[in-house]
Amino acid sequence: MWEIYDELIELIPKDLVIKDFVAGLNWFLVESIGTGMAMTPKEGNSYLHTAGNVVGMKVYDAAKLIKSWSNYEAALGLAAINSVINTSNNFEVLSGISMKKQKNVNDFEYMKDKIKGKKVAVIGHFPDLEPLAEICKLSILERIPQEGDFPDPSCEYLLPEQDFVFITAVTLINKTLPRLLNLSKNAYVTILGPSTPMTKCLYKYGINMLAGTVVTDRNKVWCLIKEGGRHEFFNNGALMVKIEIDEINTFSKS
């Protein structure tokens, strides 16, 4: 069950140090090679035992916290991992495409032609999902369900029947991702959201597409997050990026 987590941790050089860290209302940010993001957990204990000592911490040691059962510690771990993986340079090597040529649209818009008339499940209630229900048979699964959403346990029944499954990368933090991938093995699977680690090592686990975020203007994004920003960083210091399994540059190491 820990294989995904262990692979992500081992991508991190052991000598890198965290240069800066912020635990914002909506996002954690870690700066090392680049800026890594992870969604601020909405459930669980909000205590960080590393508070006051994160800056200067080895990124590798912080990355190991992704296996913590404290969601806050796990979010720090994921942001630390993403600070190494989700850089413009790494993504250009992975995709073989310049950042300037990336289609900066959300994944649901990008995939709308493929999912027309299909059974589609989305893990996590993302903004502006409702229009999707007009073009596909949509099921939204959410830990804290809104009206019309299915509760978490429904995944055991719904996911094996789907054609497409979109899974929030927050499931890495709460440790539900391995089970969700197992339930979704008959579907085309996308991991999405700014918390997504953009690395080819994830594709072996039955993932077909990664749709994440690369910070291109550190100062803009840090200012927004420190002041409580939610999604204002899109087109304002960060870009949406995506890559399917058959688009990977085979010469990429990460």
Would you give an account of this structure?
With 254 residues, this protein is of the alpha/beta class. The chain folds into 2 domains: 3-89, Enolase-like, domain 1; 96-247, Rossmann fold, CATH 3.40.50.11590. The chain is built from 9 helices and 10 strands. It has helices at residues 3-10, 59-63, 71-85, 88-95, 107-115, 155-158, 170-174, 177-183, 218-226, and strands at residues 20-23, 27-31, 35-39, 119-123, 137-142, 150-151, 164-168, 188-192, 209-215, 238-244. The strands form 2 sheets. A 7-stranded mixed beta sheet has the order 6-5-4-7-8-9-10. The chain has a 3-stranded antiparallel beta sheet with strand order 1-2-3. Strand 1 (20-23) and strand 2 form a beta hairpin. It starts with a helix and ends in a 10-residue tail after the last strand. The mean pLDDT is 93. This is Heavy-metal chelation domain-containing protein. Residues 109-236 form the Putative heavy-metal chelation domain.
List keywords for this structure.
254 residues; alpha/beta; Enolase-like, domain 1; Rossmann fold; 2 domains; 7-stranded mixed sheet; 3-stranded antiparallel sheet; 10 strands; 28% helix
Q: What are the SSEs and their pairings?
A:
Blueprint (H helix, E strand, L loop, with lengths): L2 H8 L9 E4 L3 E5 L3 E5 L19 H5 L7 H15 L2 H8 L11 H9 L3 E5 L13 E6 L7 E2 L3 H4 L5 E5 L1 H5 L2 H7 L4 E5 L16 E7 L2 H9 L11 E7 L10
Parallel strand pairs: 4-5, 4-7, 5-6, 7-8, 8-9
Antiparallel strand pairs: 1-2, 2-3, 9-10
